[in-house]
Specification:
Length: 345
């Protein structure tokens, strides 16, 4: 098979900020810039894998999980707002300490400029909106800090509704949908032209969002339920709605969201990612499928290993018959298309 061109990658979801907050909060920027840290991402490896940018998630983990890794958390009251601000500060530190190597991007044009200049394009995303206040005034603070994408839930319920919380194999129809506060949040996101992430929404919340939102429907890190019956994956009916809205799905690299048996084993061929891309393109079209790795948030195929494996994934697409133009769309152009439709230029 011919060698695949090594296109830059813009990725829909990663948990680097959580990794740095948990393990490297004393000197997060130094750890990121110097490299060699535990996990899938740091700047030297991003350069090696041609990772040009993506959505950097702020995620407040359950207190009991964080306390196992970060003992100071166990000695203080659970503080979603404080943790959110700490992780945003880490993202800002990555920018300020990078000497121009990384930039927080607020527009699609800025992303394109960063990619052209070889700067890492970082978009602030919030995964789980527990930190927000009743009046949503904090949404303005976070927007000013660079927030351009928000998922109201993780797996647990909050004041905005009910995230997906079900076992494999299972349906995404796992409970009630958006609350009145969730509907208000969704409308506020539309007014600010924030991307609304569907990836942790259960089926009722998904359909409420599809009915209420005036933006393209986007799942930043989800796969095809027909191939892997994880509740977090998308049914054919959901995919049809995303296509109708001219939205996008970012393919999740997590083993448990790829394999037909739902196992988390790293002994997962990289071709399993290709199978989901094949299926999603068949349902959504070539312009509505991209990468949504979930790096630093899940276990990935051993063959991929970390961000340095992205050229191997592009080669697997070429081996499967994908042409250069389509590989480039999946690698970054499709994300830029949908971000422009959501944010404007």
């Amino acid at each position: 098979m011919p060698n695949a061109p090594a296109f830059p990658v813009f990725d829909g979801h990663n948990d680097l900020l959580l990794n740095l907050w948990l393990h490297h909060d004393a000197q997060p920027a130094a750890a990121f810039l110097q490299g060699g840290i535990q996990g899938h991402l740091d700047l030297p490896r991003m350069r090696q894998g041609r990772f040009a940018g993506g959505m950097f998630a702020v995620f407040v983990p359950p207190a009991e999980h964080a306390a196992k890794i970060k003992p100071a958390v166990a000695d203080a009251p659970h503080d979603p707002l404080g943790i959110t601000r700490q992780q945003i500060a880490i993202l800002q530190k990555l920018e300020t300490d990078s000497a121009g190597q990384a930039k927080i991007c607020r527009t699609a044009t800025e992303i394109e400029q960063c990619m052209a200049a070889g700067q890492l394009a970082m978009v602030l995303h919030i995964e789980g909106a527990e930190a927000l206040d009743d009046e949503l005034a904090l949404l303005d603070e976070f927007y000013d800090a660079g927030l351009r994408s928000l998922g109201p839930f993780w797996n647990l319920p909050n004041r905005y509704g009910f995230g997906i919380n079900g076992t494999f194999p299972g349906s995404p129809d796992t409970g009630e949908g958006l609350t009145a506060e969730g509907i208000a949040l969704l409308r506020a996101c539309n007014r600010k032209r924030l991307l609304i992430d569907l990836s942790h929404m259960n089926e009722k919340a998904f359909w409420q969002t599809a009915a209420l939102s005036d933006a393209p429907l986007v799942a930043t890190h989800s796969n095809a339920h027909a191939l892997c019956q994880q509740p977090r994956n998308l049914t054919d009916k959901q995919l049809a709605a995303i296509r109708e809205s001219d939205g996008l799905v970012g393919v999740n690299f997590g083993n448990a969201f790829l394999r037909s048996d739902g196992q988390r084993s790293g002994n997962t061929p990289i071709t399993e990612i290709v199978k989901h891309i094949d299926y999603l393109i068949a349902k959504l079209g070539e312009d509505r499928v991209a990468f949504g790795s979930d790096f630093d948030g899940i276990s990935v195929p051993d063959e991929l290993n970390d961000v340095t494996g992205l050229p191997r994934l592009q080669q697997a697409l070429a081996d499967a018959g994908y042409g250069a133009e389509l590989i480039e769309k999946i690698s970054w152009r499709n994300w830029l298309r949908v971000l422009k439709r959501t944010w404007g230029e």
